[in-house]
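Hi everyone, sorry if this is the wrong subforum. Our group has a chain we'd like a structural model of before ordering constructs, and none of us has done structure prediction before. Sequence below.
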Amino acid sequence: MTMAPAKILVVDDDPAIRNLIFRFLSQKSYQMESAQDGKTALAMFEQFNPDLVILDVNLPDATGYALCEEMQSRTDVFVLMLTSRADAADKIKGFSQGADDYITKPFDLQELEYRVGAILKRQRIVTTAEQQRIVFNQLVIDPGRREVTLNNELVLLTALEFDLLHFLASHPGRVLRRSELIQQVWEYDYVGDQRVVDVHIGQIRKKIELDSSQPSLIQTVRGVGYKFEAPQVKQPSNKSES
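Answer:
Right subforum, don't worry. Here is the predicted structure as tokens:
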């Protein structure tokens, strides 16, 4: 059975950029709609029910960050932030509001296509083998439901954060380079700063680590990358007091 084309909503107040993205992705067989401001975007969002929103940070009547949060409170839509800001602080803010990826203007259309395709791949149905839950003490990663629980409490992760955590936890004790994580999780040739991995790791740590400044689960291997260290189960001592 042929799957329906993914639906993408482009939100940007610059008509040149908005129309460029609209026309380009329409040629790639995506179903497209567009909006030039926040009010129109929310109305179109309700009507169109997109799979992905390409969302400009700066709009005349709203911020992309607030729209991202509002849209994701209604559905599990993917969000690709589009901005002229390249500062790490802006990226961190976007990711903390739920953005799945971030692309800086000016951008290459081929890179945009790769990123859109990679984000939408996360909609795929996982195989039976991939549905196996990963359990480390009170941390449970369920790829079938795409849910993470810690101490029986649901941990709210973005789609990209889930994929990154799942990949790390699937290879406990193995040191993974940033370039390898990008290749395996982002699933395209990422041409930007590889420190984007650090931003996402930081967000995950805030959600699953007891102390994100001294992480025990996702450990930094300086100069290389990261590794997931399975928590040690404390064994009861057999020593008796003398």
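For your construct planning: The longest helix spans residues 196-208. The helical segments are 15-26, 38-48, 64-74, 88-96, 109-120, 159-169, 178-186, 196-208.
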